[in-house]
């Protein structure tokens, strides 16, 4: 059995970036990272653009101007302005080449075909210059940039419709157990509703990993070997829930040995999630998570999350850890470090009741895990504790 820090180090040292590109339509590329620098095909803005509603003027020494026309957003014609002439103009419209400033409409008095501006203004005032954001051929966004909604809008504004992005991993979730049935079916004696697969699927979707295949296998050794082989062969990362302990019908460990999965660690000194397995077969990473739902999800956030970030070439591998003040107390049983479910808010954290590894109700209310080291037997009210912020 190894320590938590040793297990985290092993996961970090055995991860690898996929470094594969895939082409995505920009509007469907949210959450992906750019595989290469993206060059702009146009100047942005593509013309001198009015920054506001007002009047574009050809400056002269007087404050009075003759109004000679109007330019709306989308107008393609040009108006020639002589000194002392102006046009009505609207936000986003193309500023005539012969205009050299825009005065906002709130500082202009109109009198028929004449206007008077409130004060002299500098050259290019309220004009967005050609290529202010990016010039044609310039780098619009650099390799590795995460595509947020703003980034997607920016690329589309440049007329870009497809971009190469880092391919996200193919992920398998394998559930094991004769006792499991799908929600919606009548609950017969000895059966429980299977929730781990969809719970982990939801966690992956929340992190924007969508290439996920679900597998289910009964407690049968031959079927377990066959199912795990397919999952490992077809995916970059495999999560197995249940069947990793040492019961008579826990076949996962033996099956992984038969499949020649290299065991990197098995069992971590922690609570919940002691029977955690991590291994590799070629480039596929394999996590066998505990069957208890809260333990499985805790291990996902502490360990699997790191592997996922590594696959995506991200620098921040672990979830954020911060210090917070406990607003209630907790007494730890045993000598294992523990991850407690809690609610973090503005520098304070509440330790919730119901910390059993099989209970999801408490986890459902949580937005954080509180780490209790092995040497700390009790958390008292107002103690400073380490909090892992969950991505929910």
UniProtKB/TrEMBL annotation:
SMART domains: MoCF_biosynth (SM00852)
Enzyme class, spelled out: transferase
Database matches in InterPro entries: MoaB/Mog-like_dom_sf, MoaB/Mog_dom, MoCF_biosynth_CS, MoeA-like, MoeA_C_domain_IV, MoeA_C_domain_IV_sf, MoeA_linker/N, MoeA_linker/N_sf
Co-factor requirement: Mg(2+)
CDD domains, alphabetized: MoeA
Residue ranges constituting the MoaB/Mog domain according to the UniProt record: 172-310
Highest taxon of source: Bacteria
Pathway: Cofactor biosynthesis; molybdopterin biosynthesis
Pfam family, one: MoeA_N
SUPFAM superfamilies associated with the record: MoeA C-terminal domain-like (SSF63867), MoeA N-terminal region -like (SSF63882), Molybdenum cofactor biosynthesis proteins (SSF53218)
Gene3D superfamilies registered for this protein in UniProt: MoaB/Mog-like domain, MoeA, C-terminal, domain IV, Molybdopterin biosynthesis moea protein, domain 2, Molybdopterin biosynthesis moea protein, domain 3
Residues passing through the membrane, by range: none
UniProt keyword tRNA processing present: no
EC numbers on record: 2.10.1.1
Catalysed reaction, written as an equation: adenylyl-molybdopterin + molybdate = Mo-molybdopterin + AMP + H(+)
Keywords associated with the record: Magnesium, Metal-binding, Molybdenum, Molybdenum cofactor biosynthesis, Transferase
Similarity comment: Belongs to the MoeA family.
Stated role: Catalyzes the insertion of molybdate into adenylated molybdopterin with the concomitant release of AMP.
Stated name of the protein: Molybdopterin molybdenumtransferase
The gene coding this protein: glp
